[in-house]
Amino acid sequence: MNPKISDFGLARTFGGNQIEANTKKVVGTYGYMAPEYAGGGIFSIKSDVYSFGVLLLEIVCGEKNRTSAHKEQWNNLVGHAWELHSEGRSLQLVAKCLGESINASQVLRSIHVGLLCVQRHPEDRPTMSNVIMMLESEGPLPSPSEPGFYVGHTKQDNTQSSSSYGTSSSNVLSITTLSGR
User: CATH for 20-149?
Assistant: First the structure.
């Protein structure tokens, strides 16, 4: 239960009672890095929780985060899992090779916990000890909020239409010919 920061291959351990720090150089695999670390070098004990959540979703899906088979979307695996969860279709994330051999309630719980781990804000993510308890228990889970690196439509995007922005413009090409005096 000792935190290893950012990624499982290039781990950096915390010292003593340290719970947050900042690095001068961000290293690791971007698909597993928490947004606050990838964007600003800030890492905490919640950075590993993010990495674990990505790994949990990869195990359920059978795909890597950065090489999602859903090319028609702009999302990585985390964003795709979030959209399916938001639409109540989380089981569609499960690897096809598993077929009917899955325990649906355990898989749904794993996806839900994975989404709790990859929430955008570190303070919203559970601790690793809470993650373990959530995976082992059968009690109710809190609702996850939008994950980091999600590029889909937010609730605000869905409620506003293009007509609410006033007049629209069209892309027009203009050519200027320069001539001397």
Answer: 1.10.510.10
Q: Report d(CA 101, CA 99) in Å as an integer.
A: 6
pTM of the model: 0.70
Closest CA to 35 of 112, 114, 125: 125
Q: How far is CA 139 from the centre of its chain?
A: 24
pLDDT digits (tens, 9 = 90+) for 34-67: 888 777 777 777 888 998 999 999 999 888 887 5
Q: Which residues of 1-11 are buried (b: 16+ CB within 10 A; e: fewer)?
A: eebebbbeeee
- What span, in angstroms and rounded, lies between the C-alpha atoms of 180 and 178? 7
3-state secondary structure of 43: strand
For residues 99 and 26, give the distance between their C-alpha atoms in angstroms, rounded to a whole number: 39
Domain ranges for the chain? 20-149
Give the 3-state secondary structure of residue 42: strand
